[in-house]
Amino acid sequence: MESDLRRFKEIIRGKIKEELRQFISNGGIILRKSGKNITIPMPSIEIPTFSFGDEEKSGEGGASKNSSGNKSEKDSGQKGKSTGAGEEEGEHSLEMDVPLEELADILGEELELPNIRSSGYGEASNKSYRYTSVHKEGPNSLNIFRQTYLKALKRSISSGEYNAQNPKIIPIKEDRRFLTAKETFKQCSNAAIIYMMDVSGSMGDEQKEIVRLTSFWIDTWLSKYYKGLAKRYIIHDATAKEVDSNVFYRTKESGGTLISSAYKLALEIIRKNYQNDDWNVYLFHFSDGDNWSGNDTLECLKLIEEKMINVVNLFCYGQVESRYGSGQFLRELVKKFGESQEKIALAAIKDRNAIIDSLKIFLGRGR
Amino acid sequence: MSKQKTLPENLEKIITDLEKKSREVGLDFFTTIFELVDYKKLHEVAAYGGLPKRYPHWRWGMEYDKLMKNYEYGLATIYEMVINNDPCYAYLLESNHLSTQKTVIAHVYGHSDFFKNNIWFSKTNRKMLDQSANNASIIREIIQTVSYSEVEDFIDTCLSLENLIDPGELFSYSFAKEKNRDEKKEIPPVPSKSYLETFLKDKKIQTNVEIQKVEKQIFNEERDILKFLSSHAEINIWQSKILDIIRSEAYYFLPQRQTKILNEGWATYWHSKMMTEICPLDISEIIDYCCQYSSIVENKGGHINPYRLGLELFKNIHKKWDEKSHNGTEKIFEVRKIHNDLSFLDNFLDEDFCHETKMFLYDYDPQKREHILTDRKFKDIKPQILSALTNCGWPIIKVIDNNFHSKGELLLKHSYDGTLLHQGKSFETLKRLYKIWKKPVHIETVVGDQKKILSFNGEELSVKK
User: Fold this and answer.
1) Fold designation for A189-363
2) What is the ipTM of this complex?
3) CB-based contacts of B88: which residues, under 8 Å, 6+ apart?
């Protein structure tokens, strides 16, 4: 069985690899993340047979597409029938839960990413769960039958419902008991990622989506190496502020752009929280590169050269092409640092399909 | 099977006891051998479809993965596996509570009796445990001489056609017999010098990859498409061997698909009778028993519960025949002998039963985005159930022409009975059929409300009038 299981996993990996480029540029996959797994639809490994079925119902990818409300009358053959419940063998497209870690491995293999040489092993706490406590609410699979039954029995006896001749015990909602998880904290090695994004008027929804996708895959990859990931988000136009991830991906401002404001804020955050050598700090900055003034750009270069390089593992800049084209900032950075600085990775991200290439540049440094 | 663990003494005693009692009530079963296994082993056997040794294939791994997840998340529990074999083998989950073990053992005797006596099982291979292990080694051997990926690819192809068999064949011997044509040709091994051995091995490989001689006679029509392909398609001998193995295993499992309701109903009927009347459980065990029993017969959304439906029908038949002619017990023994699910329900599912057990039809309401009850009428419910059970819920498909267009193309025909084929899957299946037939393949069916022919010519798919 082990070899069959291995072969099956191999096939799944193969399929994911085949379609990795598509996954990376397709936002849908991220929405299917649940805890440490990601659910990937795998219709292609099903074994087809001549079988009954309504084309309409089994549209690829799931049900949402088909709920348009004009189901044909001819469905009768598909209707359920039952002794109480019903039969409708739902046409589930096959889905696989793939651990994020495995996805990271696949990403690494496919992009030939080097392992990260982390520079510090600090201590951060990492949540884990143990199912030890009992709660009144929970999913059926965690129902504790004995306790539930006992509660129901006690209740029925004390309320006088209980009839020894005809002992029917029917648990009601209040009787039910479920196992629940207790959070425990573990110490582990860690890293801090600071994402910075330009939210000035020229950064549209598509640009943000690219940033979102890129950072998802960065997270996935770094999570493979660091059990505790601290993530901070900075948005900036002419001024910078720290926000949470929701705001980060959704905000749109109309102001101009002063990149240095973000860099200063990032340095401030690092100084306050992650100065310690135990931290591996990663900085990712996304912008369309249209900085307001040459002076500010010069200041940015100075900040990077004099301050950032000393405190971070890696500084990455991704220039996302917007409707108004690409700005000068990337060119200035390349001119200044080029390939010479191991800690600096620079990429132009033209569109979604270029995400995979930028990942290779960013993560290919092995830092 | 050789490393059989000895059972604990108390379990041994329970088994002897239950066996005796089961025989006393009239159950007539094969010698039944119990084995205690841990959950991994049990799920492994379950993933293999009940046979502990199967040929290597990824889909067992997929099934295993699924079963293990369900088990680990507490969504489903398998208590035992019983194998239709003489002697009958049953695997018990080690961690079962003792009261559960008792129930399960009584349940197993019900299955074992059913395997032995139900007419649809009468021609199944009772040495399947050995046969499937042999099949596994034949396929492993083929992998040695061909290659893993080629064999895997071919098995995938065959599995797409696995349901194209003829239930009528269950009463002929043809599926049980092994094809011997290449074995016959094989020269008995002569003691040879070692340097000759590789040469002799090469010979063997050659016979395996040789393309088999094809019988080119005219025929009427054939529902056993796997048999047809195995003797009419221009495939290598190793491929034909694999096709035969897949076919014989498909026939082995067919009666189990045909009698799910009957078989589970029968076993549940007897285990409940045993545990509550004939050799009743200890009072301390009753609550665990009831809890488990209700989880077996409860209605779960999404499908008919065969345990419940079968059990209720058997109880109903017993009661009716007792009232009518005082021979309820005799009647249910007869029913378990001569019926399959389709005829069982056709004969005994009547209007009263339908209402007593509160059956209903439901459908998905896309406006409300939920499932709604649509109908409680007997005359609507029964045909639905019967049609779902017809041919195990598979479409009825035959080969009707092996020289279509006078170019040796293959034409299948789907006997349309009101339910459409899934077109996408049909096309995918045609592509795989083409891999075996190597000439254009067609299937006549109904699309929309018109007769159409779906085709694959090796390059493109088409739908024609």
Assistant:
1) Rossmann fold (3.40.50)
2) 0.81
3) B29, B30, B31, B32, B33, B82, B108, B111, B112, B115, B116
